Amino acid sequence: MMNVWIAMATAASAAYLLGSIPAGFLAGKLLQGIDIREHGSGSTGATNVLRTLGKGPALAVFLFDVGKGVAAILLARWLCQWLLGGETGAVQGAANDPDQWASWIIALAGLMVIVGHSRSLWLNFTGGKSIATGLGMLLAISWPVGLSGLAVFIIVLAIVRIVSLSSILAALTVMIVATLLALPLAYLILVYLGALYVIWRHKANVKRLLAGTEPRVGQKSSDQKNPGQKNPN
Predict the structure, then answer these.
(1) With contact defined as beta carbons under 8 Å apart, do 24 and 44 qualify?
(2) Which has the higher per-residue pLDDT, 5 or 23?
(3) What share of the chain in percent tops pLDDT 90?
(4) Nearest to 19 by CA among 89, 58, 66
(5) E strand or H helix that includes residue 20
(6) What single-letter DSSP state applies at residue 38?
(7) At residue 229, does pLDDT exceed 90?
């Protein structure tokens, strides 16, 4: 049982620290010497990097953030295999089956990497919306679920060119697909909590969507920040 608690604490801590690596913030500092939280929407995610720094940095930040989500799950799986002997993380067998413990530990790591991205330890607990990091986590947990969310995001973005709406609909999609695929309970709870958390992170965007003021790709946000203005999130 001690190994279970060690694996849980280590996986959760490592996932949070991975998620906390502020790629968007670092890109702003390294490329233009700016705090990206004081520009555009104030987010450190790839969308605000695109608005502020351009396509190349945005793509790099996006891929890095996706990688954080994948890495957190792979690390949690390795820890479970090393400490518990569980390999797949699938819920099956008796209550003392290592794989059953592994699924919950991996799910906890998935949730913590999302929280780490949006509430970074290094940025006074600010950050991005966790879309890219959540995508990476989903691809590592269940690639059909991750790809379904990505497909909806791309299709909606191509039609309406609104990142927030695309993200929200993608989050709703992964909940539906995860349910239809009957993922193990731990993973299903992770998908639901992660998706709802991402939607909650878009609450300001939802207000602008309802008001018809949410910017499309290439437009400036109506709440664009001036240098020195604090990020409310």
Answers:
(1) yes
(2) 23
(3) 77
(4) 66
(5) helix 2-20
(6) G
(7) no
Confidence at residue 221, expressed as pLDDT on a 0 to 100 scale: 52
Going by pLDDT thresholds of 50, 70 and 90, the confidence category of residue 225 is: low
At position 189, the amino acid (one-letter code) is I
Within 8 A by CB and 6+ apart from 146, the residues are 135, 136, 138, 139, 140, 174
Q: Among 19-33, 87-101, 123-137, 166-180, where is mean pLDDT lowest?
A: 87-101
What is each CA distance from 103 to 68, 130, 181, 186, 199, in whole angstroms? 19, 22, 16, 6, 24
What distance in Å separates the CA atoms of residue 50 and residue 28, rounded to the nearest whole number? 11
CA distance 27 to 136: 20
- Which three-class secondary structure state does DSSP give residue 83? helix
- Most confident residue range from 49-53, 193-197, 221-225: 193-197
Q: Please check the confidence at residue 56 and state whether its pLDDT lies above 60.
A: yes
Is the Cβ–Cβ distance between 112 and 121 less than 8 Å? no
Please tell me the distance from the alpha carbon of residue 214 to that of residue 163, in angstroms, as a whole number: 9
Q: Which residue has the tokens 């996006």?
A: 62
Q: What count of other Cβ atoms lies within 10 Å of the Cβ of residue 201?
A: 26
Bridge partners of 120, per DSSP, are 126
Terminal-to-terminal C-alpha distance of the chain: 38
- Per-residue DSSP letter, 219: S
- β-bridge mates for residue 225, sequence order: 40
